[in-house]
Amino acid sequence: MSETRHTRVLIIGSGPAGYTAAVYASRAMLSPILVQGIQPGGQLTITTEVENWPGDTEVQGPDLMVRMQAHAEAMGAEVISDHIQSLDLSKRPFTAHGDSGTTYTADAVILATGAQAKWMGLPSEEKFKGFGVSACATCDGFFYRGREVVVIGGGNTAVEEALFLTNFASKVTLIHRRDSLRAEKILQDRLFKNPKVEILWDHVVEEVLGNEQPLGVTGVRARNVATGAETVVPCDGFFVAIGHAPASELVKDQLELHNGGYVKVKPGTTETSTPGVFAAGDLTDHVYRQAVTSAGMGCMAALDAERWLAGHEG
Predict the structure, then answer these.
(1) 123-240 shares the fold of 4-117+244-310
(2) Does the domain formed by 4-117+244-310 have CATH 3.40.50.150?
(3) Which pLDDT tens digits describe the chain residue by residue (314 residues)?
(4) Is 136 a catalytic residue?
(5) What counts of helices (H) and strands (E) characterise the chain?
């Protein structure tokens, strides 16, 4: 049954930025509503060991997000399992429509929708999605116990995925278009020392190969970027780990974006191009993209919203 809910502050998204914003907005007595979105908890829910969250030498990503949600709710935030399908920022109160049929109106909005995995855009990649092609090793790694897999990418995401997959796979081949990785040195050291890992430098994947019946991956065709020579790497699973793109579809025609779709904010703040609308976390951060910086921006967004609302009563 459809209903309309009004709140002083509507928080869209439930990663570290969203939950931290909910904690601070609740402490400011703004009674925020947080709509979790399609992936409650955000990217940390598909991460295993988190070793750079202050206060925890090591914590499981999903556990950390459960604790953050419980904290937000304990402070007084209302956390709703729904997904915002449309958002109107043209006038106040701002209006959002959820998949549940609920309409949310708000005096201020904090956007914390995060980022989503990037895909390569190959027709063969699309064909085998869910049938050997994945963008989440922690989701699907278990299915490749004792089998060979390929990971493509060169940043932290790719190296973390490759290392995680060594827990299951008999062999992990990391393919990277350059001759060096961008990942943190500590992660590179672990990768290079792992006997299950082989690295194919200076290559790009041209095609995912597989069978029709049953549908499944059998390998990838890779091309050397310098010589053009092609190599077929046999594998049962292909993991795409080439980074993430900001989830800014809701606001792409309403807010100023930059750097490939990130929401632009006023330097030193979380203020967007529309007064009363604030953005935090990976949706706006194209530089650091860490859980701790997302949480910090969530705090900033709530404080910015509180101050803005105080100056716009009625």
Answers:
(1) yes
(2) no
(3) 579 999 999 999 999 999 999 999 999 999 999 999 988 888 787 666 788 899 999 898 889 999 999 999 999 999 999 999 999 999 999 999 999 999 999 999 999 999 888 899 999 999 999 899 998 887 788 899 999 999 999 998 899 999 999 999 999 999 999 999 999 999 999 999 999 999 999 999 999 999 999 999 999 999 999 999 999 999 999 999 998 889 999 999 999 999 889 999 999 999 999 999 999 999 999 888 889 999 999 999 999 999 999 998 75
(4) yes
(5) 7, 21
Residue 139: active-site member: yes
Provide long-range contacts, Cβ within 8 A and 24+ apart, for 304-308: 304/269, 304/270, 304/271, 304/278, 305/9, 305/21, 305/25, 305/30, 305/108, 305/110, 305/276, 305/278, 306/24, 306/25, 306/28, 306/30, 308/108, 308/271, 308/275, 308/276, 308/278
For the chain, domain boundaries: 4-117+244-310, 123-240
Q: Is 107 a catalytic residue?
A: no
Residue in 56, 88, 99, 139 annotated catalytic? 139
**Cβ–Cβ under 8 Å, residues 208 and 217:** yes
Contact assessment for residue 13 and residue 282, using Cβ atoms and an 8 Å cutoff? no
Q: How far apart are CA 180 and CA 159, in angstroms?
A: 12
Calpha distance 173→298 (Å, rounded): 37
Q: Which CATH number fits domain 123-240: 3.20.20.105, 3.20.20.70, 3.50.50.60, 2.40.40.20?
A: 3.50.50.60
- Indicate which residue of 82, 140, 236, 282 is catalytic: 140
